[in-house]
Records
---
Amino acid sequence: MSTRKMRVGILGATGVVGQRFVELLRDHPWFEIAALAASDASAGKVYRDSCTWRMNGDWPAGAGDLMVQPCVPPLDCELVFSALPASVAGEVEESFAQAGYPVITNSRNHRMDPDVPVLVPEINADHVRILEAQRKWRGYSRGFIVTNPNCSATALVMALAPVHRSFGLRAVQVTTLQAISGAGYPGVPASDLVDNVIPYIAEEEEKIERETKKILGELVDGQFRPDDLALSAQCHRVNVRDGHLEAVSIGLKRPASPEEIRAAWESFSGPPQELRLPSAPARPIVVREEPDRPQPSRDRDAEHGMATVVGRLRPCPVLDYKFVLLGHNTVRGAAGGTILIAEYLRATGWI
Ligand code: NAP
């Protein structure tokens, strides 16, 4: 692999996820920010004048002085990260892939396309093989589209995958308590969230159910075969800044003790750890033993926000076990997860 830093662009750079990209790429050893793009309202302005910086600390040196451009190819970069809203992401991402750019996206538009992988590199790195067929079918020369999962699905599937591999999962019920930042900026009005919980997030339950099965499924003869586990999700917006908490019940195909499930979580790792990718968490799953953990404000930054934190494993009178998990929605569930995918693609020669 070349030691030269790859020049990357960010579509939707002024939003919640776009700013998280800028923050996480600040001193990245393999990538440097070369282009920032957003809507016509921001294009033509210097980045630091186009939006209010909502991450911790100051504007990253360099990025703050870049001119924001429209989300139209060409951009002076070698790959693009997309943090665009679903209303525009589909066509814009296709136009960049057609123009020869690898596109790695947080948007939902292409996740369920039959030739697009939804990648969690610890779990289904082999799904990347579909990209050869994608290029052929779509007539892309160098470009392609890779997606990361929905933020709640990301945290969930990390906790499910090792249990599924070791004991088989027949049924999963998940109830999410999702942070405000998951709705973008400005997102849900404060007057709707203070002293309240909103028991509806548009299309979220369907995304969790579909994407989790695709990730846990197989790629056989150029076709994705989703896993056949029964999965039911219920989603709620709560008054938390960052970090999605999820209450999960699981039914197993083969019996397992709590110690065996904990051991499956604690020993879980995959290609990002083997390849020592810069953003790979040393522990993809962090197990907490305290009765009142994980909590969003205390645990969302575990492994720099790249881990799923699990706790409260106990028997379930309806299914077999229940537990609580937590994932950082804008880090592992969005920008950080997408950067990890790019690192995996670079380490394995796809980009
Ligand atoms: P956001 O805060 O609303 O930001 C949207 C970004 O897209 C802004 O940079 C905005 O630019 C740009 N944009 C809006 N309309 C555009 C247009 N017509 N043409 C070009 N650019 C346009 O949203 P977000 O929360 O960052 O989410 C971005 C994507 O990531 C969404 O698809 C979302 O579902 C997904 N996602 C979000 C999270 C999360 O936790 N927030 C997690 C996983 C995935 P302006 O500032 O110029 O309007």
---
Amino acid sequence: MSSFKKIKIIKPDDCHVHLRDEKILKKVLRYTERFYQRAIIMPNLDKPIIDCKKAIAYKSRIMDLSKNTKFEPLMTCYLTKDTSLNELKNGFFNKIFIGAKLYPNQSTTNSKTNINNLSEIFHILELMQKIKMPLLIHGEENHFNIDIYDREAQFIDKTLVPLRKIFPELKIILEHITTKEAVSYIKEANSSYLAGTITPHHLMLNRNNMFFGGIQPHLYCLPILKRKIHQNSLKKAISDGNKNFFLGSDSAPHLYTNKINPLGCAGIFNAPSSLLCYVTIFEEMKALKYLESFCSKNGANFYNIPINKESITLIKKPSKILEKINIGKNFISPFLSGEILHWSIL
Ligand code: NCD
Ligand code: ZN
């Protein structure tokens, strides 16, 4: 018998992941499907997933490459000003879409949605509220004059608070939250209509890490890493066992040459280590008793889908994070590349 500590939990869902397409999809999918039973797939491909037909085709490209027959991709619709209400309604009722994703115009990778003011899509939000379709939001107020470190807090004040007054029963997931303002807003709302996902990198790092010993392009993501006070507030949020926070890794692979570039892309590819990072943080916070609800229950409950039946066992045994994934002559450098974590999966 090994003496390593083990934790068995219901197999988690990754409620926010970018799998990309074609040759990248082919190489990154295996990590997500190894650790996660289901994953909510972001629609910001170079040609975004804006309708049912595109979602069905993308889902089957994912399933065709999948080696885990039990893995289930859950698709999202990329909102634009022109999103058809019928498309959204049919997609949701026929379980093609689990929700729709709102990217304020130019807020991040592939987000030329032209949505500069939410009033431009009120008719869409009204429908979504009516049919109880979840709205996933990249919550950053994106204006050149707003300091990049303040964009999330300002989005809450200027956009989200007024929006929730108009649509109090719209189910909203504030994605990849990074600030103490977002944590308190979600906690105080204490509502079955508002939740937040939290990434492993925002739990493990703060903005100092991005400049440690030199600029670290692999740690550049959006929303950008914040001060330690915010990192601590996220760690506290998950260790209190609050049901309105759950796992969304925001694993976002980019080719090395697109990261190490004068205009390097935002995004951290963490799929090979995300679950191991979460368990590391829960252990550090002495909150392992809440690991399972954060990883495997809160998201499913919020999205109103069944809790998974499979389980996964985490074992306190060191593992080395793989160094790179070759993609033709290029490669992707994973989060914590080559580093040792104290946890593995059985
Ligand atoms: C994501 C990507 O690369 O698609 N990038 C990121 O920094 N997180 C988009 C996103 O979720 O913002
Ligand atoms: Zn993302």
